[in-house]
Amino acid sequence: MQDSNTIGGKDVAVHLHSYTNLAALPSTPPLVIVKGDGIHVVDDEGKRYVEGMSGLWCASLGFSNKRLADAGTQALNTLPYYHTFNQRTNPAVVELAERLLKLAPVPMSRVFFANSGSEANDSAVKMVWYYHNAIGKPEKKKIIARKRAYHGVTVAAASLGGLDANHRDFDLPLARFLHVDTPHHYYGAKPGETEDAFSTRLAEGLEQTILAEGPETVAAFIAEPVMGAGGVLVPPAGYFEKVQAVLAKYDILFIADEVICGFGRTGNMFGSTTFGMRPDILTCAKALSSGYVPISAVMVNAKVYDAIAANSGKIGTFGHGYTYSGHPVASAVALETLKVYEDEDILGNVAKVAPVFQAAARAFANRPMVGEVRGVGLIGAIELVADKAAHKPFAPEQKVGYRLAALALEEGVIVRAMGDAIGLCPPLIISAEQVTDMFARLARAFDKLE
Ligand code: PLP
């Protein structure tokens, strides 16, 4: 049991934790993080950790960016709150939307703002439904996502997701949400099947699902460029080209969930550019503000916007929006984040450091318990397996991934165990030397486990 005088002890008595085994919490002390500096965070005992996951894939500029802090402070001192309902706006949100439209990977028409990735995806779903009602196709409502996808935890976003923990005992997914096969070449491909052939098979599977459901009932397909929480799954060669050909054939909208990949993670400003995706709707969050304030965005193209705008004219309003949509403080911090990306050439740093990161990660492929190392840009995963030759996973109850992540913590590096895939997603400001140090710490954790 926890000492009730410590922060951790008090915490377990009052705090209903996100994504935690609540039953085990009283016997497992929470890690209390008290401050951050650069790519590091520091716990309440003064121990420093390399934050190899940027928190939850978001603190792209690290944990002590002064420009973002100053932008937030100034905004708080100028206009701490206002809303964007009923034709209200503020200067920061306008400039932020302008910048986002300029950065968009494909021509986009408007930007809607929310507070989290989940809300952005929830909003995208509602816009898809509203759009199809607006264009007189009210039966076109089903949304296809992928098994192992992660799109958030609101009722719609969790329904989009394809991870068991987000569905089980929450009575999800809702009807209208379907899941097709995961583009996971390591576990999903047949022996000897090339990435291209695997992609063809997945696209054919998608088409069969659409035909079985009735194309006139299928509204949209949603995909992360790289599936993050599902295990950092980089799409196999040709995947999005083949998928998009199917979507175009049946007039199905394409939503890109760029909540993790947006803003440089894969080497381009958006993962859509890296993988040739041409979405009608794009959602982003996390690195939009480097995680410093809650903010997310939904970009929609002219086809979608024009239809929903016309429909709102008939009803008298577009009945969707949050109290904090376009929040002036969040918008100011996000705007400053985008300026820092440009002024400090953060993509240039990714281009420089990513080859070092990917090579250092791939060096782990020689270890006996590593089945595959995958990644792109500054995101990657190391897949732990019981049998390399047979692609056989460890039994889940062995909790090998979690044990490795715990050993890594001892070595002063924070990584994320997604089952037995060890995820890495460091701040985009990381230097080549820091990458080398991060992997050296991880190697020591492996040595202890093997
Ligand atoms: N979409 C993706 C791809 C994510 O990785 C996440 C969160 O990790 C979300 C959506 C949900 O974002 P949030 O936790 O801000 O609601």
TrEMBL record:
PANTHER family found in the cross-reference section: ADENOSYLMETHIONINE-8-AMINO-7-OXONONANOATE AMINOTRANSFERASE (PTHR42684)
UniProt similarity note: Belongs to the class-III pyridoxal-phosphate-dependent aminotransferase family.
A single GO molecular function term of this UniProt record: pyridoxal phosphate binding
Obligatory cofactor(s): pyridoxal 5'-phosphate
Coiled-coil residues: none
Organism: Xylophilus rhododendri
Alphabetized UniProt keyword annotations: Aminotransferase, Pyridoxal phosphate, Transferase
NCBIfam families from the UniProt entry: PRK06105.1, PRK07480.1
Alphabetized CDD domains for the sequence: OAT_like
Protein name: Aminotransferase class III-fold pyridoxal phosphate-dependent enzyme
Organism domain of life: Bacteria
GO biological process: biotin biosynthetic process; gamma-aminobutyric acid metabolic process
InterPro entries, alphabetized: Aminotrans_3, Aminotrans_3_PPA_site, PyrdxlP-dep_Trfase, PyrdxlP-dep_Trfase_major, PyrdxlP-dep_Trfase_small
